[in-house]
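Pair request: fold both.
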Amino acid sequence: MYRKGRSIMKHLLTIAGSDSSGGAGIQADLKTFAAHGTFGMSVITAVTAQNTTGVTRIQNIDAEVVAAQIDAVFSDIHVDAVKVGMVSITPIIETIAKKMKAYVPSYLVVDPVMVATSGAYLLEETARRTLLEKLLPLASVITPNMMEGEVLSGMTIRSKDDMEKAAHAILDACGAAVLLKGGHLAQTADDYLLEKDGRGTWLLGRHIDNSNTHGTGCSLSSALASELALGHTLPEAAQLAKDYVALGIEHGLPVGHGHGPIHHFVSLYEKAGIGK
């Protein structure tokens, strides 16, 4: 993937938190970038003490250090797409928004990590408002799950009809395309993509009987950013990203005592004959 000494590989940047267990956050993003044949770079917003059973400690990085990391990457390396994940405090959100306005990446995918699996809010109200007003409007597409969709839309989501209405409310609120994930639907795992021009597309899915799903949201948004950078349209990129994560869930790894991670490299391993 080199030409005259220069890489022609796409360069992807993740701005997110670190997961010490390796299944989600920065670690999942970098694995996903690599699985898509892209070169991954990272800006760490928080360090978490985390494993497959939960998060026990979070240390946010100073906003000035986040800014310095972003400047270090953009000042030296061409960035084809950016994925933003865990950003839990207002100063960091404001810093990222300011830098994205300055550098204007071709694609900005934001995974609004607002609600934990337990249902607990990860963002204070002021930080949620800053996210909605300053960062999400800059995004090419955002990827909330149903609980996050409820926070962003102010609606209760229980059905596919609710998902469509919520996606339109979110689009109206922030102006970004919305990939609303339906993994918590009762009968299906269908996702709803609403583009900026109002075109809606259902991406059909099924529930997979595997509890090793740690890092699915991080991996989906990173796969989406990768596919966009590789030249796919938003509907194409969304479907490819969904297929990638579904395969990873199907072959989820029994690591740890809780919900293990998805298998980010299952296709590469199969081609190499590893694990057979």
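--- second member of the pair ---
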Amino acid sequence: MAHKKYFFFDIDGTLTDRATGQIVPSAKTALKKLSDAGHFVAINTGRAHYKARPFFEANGFTNMVCSGGHGLVIDGVLVANPPLDYGAAKALYNETIAAGYGVLVAEDDSIDVYAKDFTFIKQMGQRLEPTRYIIEAHYEPIRDIYKMYLALPRGEEHRLPHLNHPALGHLRFEGDYMVIQPDEKRDGLLRMLDRVGGAPEDVVVFGDDINDFDMFTPPFTRVAMGNAHPRLKAMADIIAPANVDDGIYRICEAQGWF
């Protein structure tokens, strides 16, 4: 058997064809061949656990880093999924409301979001994924905050200084709204290694977009897809062909990982 490595794959744009949302067939074949060769294979995604779980189960995974690094699934069991730092998140919530922007708050690992009014929807429209809106006129987040969605236009980030709090991550994915969620793919990966007994120098990460920057650091072997963001390619050790051009399979074969 080849020396055991620990492979971590982003989902969107890496494992999946963004046009269809489905896993690239050759990538699924590569995952099985890596597992059959004795390697550790896992997802590392910014998706919340509830959102990543269907893909995880449909494609035969048993291990996953999710929720931007906060969630850990080992042997199919969710073993960790803590919320955001409440003090930092609540301060940003108050700052956002005071500045006149709408806010949606996810208090658990589900499609539910809470708000005191419809300001977010009026300013940004509805979210671009399944969501159940719970509107309560006197709503205030008084318990766990897992994610927040801010109706913050591009170019106005300076109006919310708490965006840069070190305990919070912020990203834009789809639409113009800002998503407040963990941005700790590297730390989540390292926590996974601690639990399964792996070494950082044996890790190989695959990614394509800006939310993969955090895990594209030494000593990991970093593989950027051919369709990746230019800045991620600049951080990579290896640039694969585009994911839809069988990039994962071709690089694994070329590197002798099968």
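Observation on the second member. The first strand starts at residue 6 and ends at 9.
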